[in-house]
Design brief:
Blueprint: H1 2-22, H2 29-45, H3 49-65, H4 78-96, H5 104-121, H6 128-131, H7 141-157, H8 162-176
C-alpha cells in the first residue's frame, strides 16, 4: 500500500508541474510554453507507462493551450467560463422561471449576449436615442442559420408538417439538379 502511495505521489508532483506551466501568473507565455514542451518530452521519453500517457495527452492538448499569448482575454478555466456566461443565463432563468436557460441562448446568443451585458458598460438607463442606431441592424448570419435549422427540425419532428417539409426539400433538390 505504501509503495502505491509513493508512486501516486510522484505522479501528483508531475501533474503539479504541468499545472504550473498553465498558470498565467507563473511567467510569460513563451517561457511557460517552453517549459510545457520540456515536460512533454521528458514524459514521452520516460519508461513509466503513466508518464508516457501524460506526454501523449500533453502533445494532443499542446496546439490550443498557448494560443493568443498574453493578449488573449479568454477564460482561464471552466469556472471563468461559467462566470462569463452567468449573467445571460441568470437573466433567462428569471424570465421563464426554470433552472435551465433553454436553447434560446444557443440560437440567439450572438445578439442576445451583447444585449444582456449592455448594462455593465452603460452608465444609466437606456433611452430611445441610445438604441436608435441599432434599429435596422440585421442578426448575424450564424444566428439566422441556427434559427432556420431550428424551424426545419421542428417541422421534421411534427407529424403534420413533415410531409410538406419533405415535399419542399424534394422540390429544391430536383430544382438544383
Amino acid at each position: 500500500m505504501h509503495d502505491i502511495q509513493e508512486a501516486i505521489r510522484a505522479h501528483v508532483d508531475d501533474v503539479g508541474a504541468i499545472q504550473a506551466t498553465l498558470e498565467p501568473d507563473r511567467g510569460t507565455c513563451a517561457a511557460r510554453q517552453a517549459q510545457f514542451q520540456v515536460l512533454q518530452e521528458q514524459f514521452h521519453a520516460s519508461d513509466d507507462p503513466i508518464r508516457q500517457h501524460m506526454g501523449q495527452v500533453m502533445a494532443s492538448f499542446a496546439p490550443g493551450l498557448f494560443v493568443g499569448e498574453e493578449e488573449a482575454d479568454m477564460p482561464q478555466d471552466n469556472l471563468d467560463l461559467e462566470r462569463w456566461f452567468r449573467q445571460p443565463k441568470g437573466h433567462e432563468r428569471r424570465i421563464h422561471g426554470h433552472r435551465h436557460a433553454g436553447v434560446r441562448i444557443v440560437q440567439e446568443g450572438p445578439t442576445l449576449l451583447l444585449a444582456l451585458d449592455a448594462h455593465l458598460a452603460h452608465p444609466g438607463p437606456f433611452t430611445g436615442a441610445d438604441l436608435r442606431p441599432y434599429r435596422h441592424c440585421p442578426a448575424p448570419a450564424c444566428q439566422r442559420q441556427a434559427l432556420h435549422r431550428r424551424t426545419m427540425m421542428r417541422q421534421a419532428r411534427s407529424t403534420k408538417q413533415r410531409p410538406g417539409l419533405l415535399a419542399e426539400l424534394e422540390r429544391r433538390y430536383l430544382k438544383g439538379s
